[in-house]
Amino acid sequence: MQQYHLYTARDFALDEYFQEWVLQPDVKSTYYWDTWLKLHPEKKEAVDTAIQLVRSIHFRDYQMTATQKEALWDNIWDSIAADDITAPSPVPVTAASRFRIFSWKYAAAILLFIVLGLLWLFMRTPPFHPLTASVATQAGQTKRLLLPDSSEVLLNASSRLLYTQKEPLVREVWLDGEAWFHVKHQKDNRSFVVHTYDHLSVEVLGTQFNVNNFGNKIAVVLQEGSIKLNIAEQQGQHITQLYLRPGEMLRYDKTDGEYSKSRIDAEKVTAWTRGQLIMDEYTVADAIQFMQQVFDRHVTVKDPKVLRYSVSGSMPIIYNADTMLMQFEKAFNVRFSKRDDTNHVREN
């Protein structure tokens, strides 16, 4: 990832991606720069100056007339033919020799165009630079971000994400917490791997999926496309590979390495990305886990039977701990109270 936060106005003006955004903006580049400016408002003055610099440079298309093009070709042929005139005395030119000369010139012209084309591609292809980027969310906070490869990520509360690209064809992400990914497929089929700081990794080319890496469990849900899961044994080097289809979930237990695959409604699991909590036989125990995961609020229960209370339905996710506690109180008909910075629940 370019170190744009260190750029001056001149650096921005010389950056090719920045120039494309200024001169030929599209949805992707506009989203990227708007998002970047929100994260780095102190760079607005430098960016505005760079925009003026880029727009002040005008290039005039050079057009050749048909006569000029014909003269150019004649000069090319004459230059090539000049190399053939090495004999000290005139040599009769036959039809066959004319054909050979023309064929040689034609082949030389094609070779010239190939060399020029390769040179142009080399000049247009920027050199590869290793990339590293990281982002984190606090309790009760989510972040939507665009990775350097234009993949979209929605990071849930109390989560951390590290993106690296040490090789041109390999993109890697380390996730602690929960995130929804929309991975952009690359023309060169470069891989995209999500690591969970454990024995499980998710490998994908282009798809939408959700990874929850909170506590002692890892849950991977595929929403669209296909992904390959690499599960390493906790003892030994053996790796098991599993594939998920849309609507399938893999649950992995970090404590014993056990895992299982099942069908699930992916839209319900990823409803948090749309600001909704879908409760399908949702229990007080689930609510406690939600509060701990999203708001870092710990809840203790005096009567264990309360944990089995359940409801079904949906509610909006409001990233305010007290508001969510009140919503759970209404849904389960229980009462949460704060005692010594710890939440207790009791039956009404």
From TrEMBL:
It holds the Pfam family FecR. The keyword Zinc-finger does not apply. Keywords: Membrane, Transmembrane, Transmembrane helix. The keyword Transport does not apply. InterPro entries: FecR, Ferrdict_sens_TM. The chain crosses the membrane at residues 106-123. It comes from the Bacteria. Residues 135-228 form the FecR protein domain. This is FecR domain-containing protein. It comes from Chitinophaga filiformis (Myxococcus filiformis).
